[in-house]
Design a protein that fits this description.
Blueprint: E1 4-9, H1 16-25, E2 31-32, H2 35-40, H3 49-69, E3 74-77, H4 84-95, E4 99-106, H5 109-121, H6 126-137, H7 143-156, E5 162-165, H8 171-185
Parallel strand pairs: 1-3, 1-4, 2-3, 4-5
Length: about 190
Amino acid sequence: MAPTLIVLNGPPASGKSTLARLLVERRPLALCLDIDDVRSMLGASLDDPDAAGVAARRLALAMTDTHLAAGFDVVVPQLLMRSALLDELELVARRHAAEFVEVLLQIGRDEAIHAFEQRRASPESVAHRHSIELIDRMAGLDPIGEMYDAVQRLADRRPGCHRLAARRGAIDATLDELVDLVERAAR
């Protein structure tokens, strides 16, 4: 059976990382490859966030390539507002005859803003703290809303993107729906 590369996109605090961790628990030796975690492992990454982002994506692509080559699934939870990394990940999947499943976790715009403010109040990881700091550095009056809009526009331009309603507070039901979606899409 061919491995599967699953990309979970969505606005900040939509549940990407949580769902990815739970999903890999159901897929033997699957890799949960959270690029924000990789970036947070780089020394002084907040001093040059652009260079750190490029380095983290390069590492993530190499890790994805290695794991798919070994025949194992990879799940990438990542907020993506441009198609470049999606296109690169899809090429890696093709190189290994792996299935490529792109999923946009859908929550409402106001819900995304509220969820991010809750995360800001009690971040759960170094990657969350770094993301909060990077978002706080962004110009604009509504950075979460702007990111939300950009993620939606990207998904609208990608016909292969599957949309999944991410119901906050119903993680088990959302996970079951994600598993079903991935199984259908990977056939």
